Amino acid sequence: MIKSFxxxxxxxxxxxxxxxxxxxxxxxxxxxxxxxxELSRAFNVSRNTxxxxxxxxxxxxxxxxxxxxxxxxxxxxTGNLLAASIPSILFSKKxxxxxxxxxxxxxxxxxxxxxxxxxxxxxxxLRKCVALLRNAGSTPADFITADxxxxxxxxxxxxxxxxxxxxxxxKDVILQYMEEAVxxxxxxxxxxxxxxxxxxxxxxxxxxxxxxxxxxxxxxxxYLDTEYSSLYDDV
Length: 235
Fold this sequence. Notes:
elongated, 11 helices, mainly alpha
């Protein structure tokens, strides 16, 4: 469904609506979407606003412009749609808790696989990431950057391309969660846990690595689950 917008940040709103039309199946893969003038009238915004939203989705590979024909929904959407749609959808505390629970599954399996597959180069890169965590000190922005880099390297070290793809494509969501969680995290404890995980990977101790990673996530999940329990009341 197309609806008009009168709020600020119109490009973001229009982009979200275009994605909603695609996700809902209103504009299926391979279909021609309405023209810019049609969308401009339907949304009650300028053509420049519509064009900017379309260009953003083209950059993600979700839409494809064909000269002289129009704009089509890309036929293969699996990866690109995941990357572009989820960050704009997830805002609530409940959503962030869902992301944390989802990450727990992937991160635990990543370290187990890394214990089997990580090369000496992988372990060296993981050590560098842990050093970045240590050097971040009490600066939240630096800590978040280093934390994401470490978990990205863990996914890479697992040798599972799907894990790496998910962590990469969900970067915006993960960083949003990390911004929320960093205030709940003792940076020194987090550094110590990550360091022990890398030790376990280097020693090929999969059970140890798994347990430390599980504990790392469980502490936050338990806290957030209690903190936001009221969010489930209406579910």
